């Protein structure tokens, strides 16, 4: 009995639903017919009204009223079009556009916000972001060890100054450089200076002091020697160049695990007459690393864009002497950034209007240093002190022959 009641109630619901569907379809049909008839009626009478006003100069009150409404509608449309044109002609300020950019970031961070196919759009927003970071960063760098005598007359006769950024604990790396390509560079008229910070381990204070007393080629700044302070170390190079060696033609900034072809760099200093330029292995449209476990991690808060501006990879790059001062001065007006090469050769260079260009054969990865290959290279990265000595011994042999 209960099952019969349920079946009966369900059949009643089905019938009622069918009636509702039929009623709904009828209403849709009536509305459709009404719309068609209305359009037909309006079209037919619109023709009559137009014919009337083409043939008569004095319209009736009713038709005149309709005609005046038509004219007002046309005027309103024209006013609307002119307002739209004015709105479109108004240029949105860079600040407003950047503010919209930040708002969109919070809403749509994982979709289109961080990706720019239009380089003009990226450049414009990047400049606004860069200006927002422009302020006195309070950076003060003093030198605990200094050698102003290394650049006579501000380096007027120095073709190239080689600034080797080294850790206070890397005594063996500096020794290997002095015994190999660094010593050879000094024989050719270059100036070689090692730039250090303060060691964490107190025992290295006396070792660095003894090393400097012997070779007189160490400039030590007053910050702790850590990877995160590499940016400050390069700024100390720029400060020293500005104060001591501002007239040197070129500056070669290198890490202490680089192997350098001095002859090829000297050829560049003689053949090139660049101005306000940084040359090296150029990074174009280089994306930030977003993995927090990575050594080069950059958060969205630190840098919101999907690509960096053009910069030159940090292990080695060549600067024109006239760029050091402007880079140093701008570095004091911009918030520091942990990645030294991106900051100095990207952000600061952009503010200082220093060009970045690619220098072929300047590599920041390990290269084959066989004699016949090395003659075409400028630099190779990632070499231990024994490796540097071994390659130098092999390269200084004069009994090898290479195909022209």
From TrEMBL:
Keyword Glycosyltransferase: yes
Any matching Pfam family: Galactosyl_T
Entry GO terms, CC: Golgi membrane
Top EC class, one word: transferase
Keywords, sorted A to Z: Glycoprotein, Glycosyltransferase, Golgi apparatus, Membrane, Signal-anchor, Transferase, Transmembrane, Transmembrane helix
InterPro entries reported in the protein's UniProt record: Glyco_trans_31
Molecular-function annotations in GO: hexosyltransferase activity
Gene Ontology BP term (one): protein O-linked glycosylation
Similarity section: Belongs to the glycosyltransferase 31 family.
Protein name: Hexosyltransferase
Organism: Oedothorax gibbosus
């Amino acid at each position: 009995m209960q099952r019969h009641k349920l079946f009966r109630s369900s059949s009643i619901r089905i019938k009622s639903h069918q009636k509702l569907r039929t009623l709904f379809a009828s209403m849709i049909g009536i509305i459709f017919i009404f719309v068609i008839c209305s359009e037909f009626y309006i079209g037919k009478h619109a023709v009559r009204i137009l014919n009337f006003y083409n043939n008569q100069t004095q319209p009736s009150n009713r038709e005149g009223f309709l005609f005046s409404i038509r004219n007002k509608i046309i005027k309103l449309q024209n006013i609307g079009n002119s307002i739209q044109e004015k709105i479109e002609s108004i240029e949105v300020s860079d600040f407003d556009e950047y503010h919209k950019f930040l708002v969109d970031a919070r809403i749509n961070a994982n979709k289109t916000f961080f990706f720019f196919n239009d380089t003009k759009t990226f450049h414009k927003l990047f400049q606004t972001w860069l200006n927002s970071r422009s302020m006195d960063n309070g950076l003060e760098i003093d030198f605990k060890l200094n050698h102003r005598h290394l650049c006579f007359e501000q380096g007027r006769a120095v073709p190239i100054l080689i600034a080797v950024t080294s850790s206070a604990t890397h005594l063996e790396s500096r020794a290997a450089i002095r015994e190999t390509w660094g010593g050879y560079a000094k024989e050719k008229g270059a100036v070689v200076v090692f730039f250090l910070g303060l060691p964490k381990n107190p025992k290295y204070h006396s070792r660095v002091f003894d090393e400097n007393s012997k070779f007189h080629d160490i400039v030590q700044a007053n910050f702790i020697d850590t990877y995160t302070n590499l940016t400050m170390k390069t700024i100390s190079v720029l400060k020293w160049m500005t104060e001591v060696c501002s007239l040197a033609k070129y500056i070669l900034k290198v890490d202490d695990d680089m192997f350098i072809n001095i002859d090829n760099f000297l050829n560049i200093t003689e053949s090139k007459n660049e101005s306000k330029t940084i040359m090296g292995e150029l990074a174009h449209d280089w994306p930030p690393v977003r993995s927090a476990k990575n050594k080069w991690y950059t958060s969205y808060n630190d840098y919101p864009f999907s690509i960096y501006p053009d910069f030159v990879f940090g292990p080695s790059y060549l600067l024109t002497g006239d760029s050091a001062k402007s880079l140093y001065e701008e570095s004091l007006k911009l918030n520091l950034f942990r990645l030294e090469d991106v900051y100095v050769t990207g952000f600061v260079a952009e503010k200082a209007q220093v060009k970045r260009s690619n220098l072929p054969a300047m590599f920041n990865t390990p290269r084959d240093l066989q004699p016949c290959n090395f003659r075409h290279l400028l630099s190779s990265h990632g070499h231990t002190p024994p490796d540097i000595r071994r390659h130098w011994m092999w390269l200084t042999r004069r009994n090898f022959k290479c195909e022209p």
